[in-house]
């Protein structure tokens, strides 16, 4: 089976997670820094990730407002998805990411991690939660 990439797309960082080959578990891979909306700045990184891990599908966290509407950040995630689809011809699935960053923060706080360390891994952890949520929903 091919692997699935999970992304938590922010304006300055993108948290990245990857599934195991069976599609059961999500592991945090890395966080990359970028300046939205400069897609060219991350194109080589994503090409390498997709090729190296034989990625067929990309799950992108879709931040929605609590009423379910799509705001500015949601639109930015949709724009990033279009970049992935157009550039790499990969299927993109949106996953409702409401509360994933808060949930990731809670897990890291419970692990008694310092604020500086939390800041470094929070996006990657959110990507894991987005991807794991998607994987858990699959039959």
UniProtKB/TrEMBL annotation:
One of its GO terms (molecular function) is hydrolase activity, acting on ester bonds. It is found in: Cytoplasm. GO terms for cellular component: cytosol. One of its GO terms (biological process) is rRNA 5'-end processing. Residues 2-104 form the YqgF/RNase H-like domain. Its main location: cytoplasm. It is an enzyme of class 3 (hydrolase). Keywords: Cytoplasm, Hydrolase, Nuclease, Ribosome biogenesis. Its EC number is 3.1.-.-. SUPFAM superfamilies: Ribonuclease H-like (SSF53098). HAMAP family: Nuclease_YqgF. Could be a nuclease involved in processing of the 5'-end of pre-16S rRNA. Belongs to the YqgF HJR family. This is Putative pre-16S rRNA nuclease. The gene is ruvX.
């Amino acid at each position: 089976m091919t692997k699935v990439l999970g992304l938590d797309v922010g304006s300055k960082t993108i948290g990245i997670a990857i599934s195991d080959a069976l599609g059961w578990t999500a592991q945090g891979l890395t966080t990359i820094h970028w300046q939205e909306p400069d897609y060219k700045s991350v194109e080589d990184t994503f090409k390498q990730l997709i090729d190296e891990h034989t990625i067929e599908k990309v799950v992108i966290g879709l931040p929605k407002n609590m009423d379910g509407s799509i705001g500015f950040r949601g639109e930015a995630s949709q724009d990033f998805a279009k970049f992935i689809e157009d550039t790499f011809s990969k299927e993109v699935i949106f996953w409702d990411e409401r509360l994933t960053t808060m949930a990731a923060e809670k897990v890291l706080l419970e692990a008694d991690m310092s604020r500086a360390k939390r800041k470094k891994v929070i996006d990657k952890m959110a990507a894991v939660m987005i991807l794991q949520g998607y994987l858990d929903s699959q039959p």
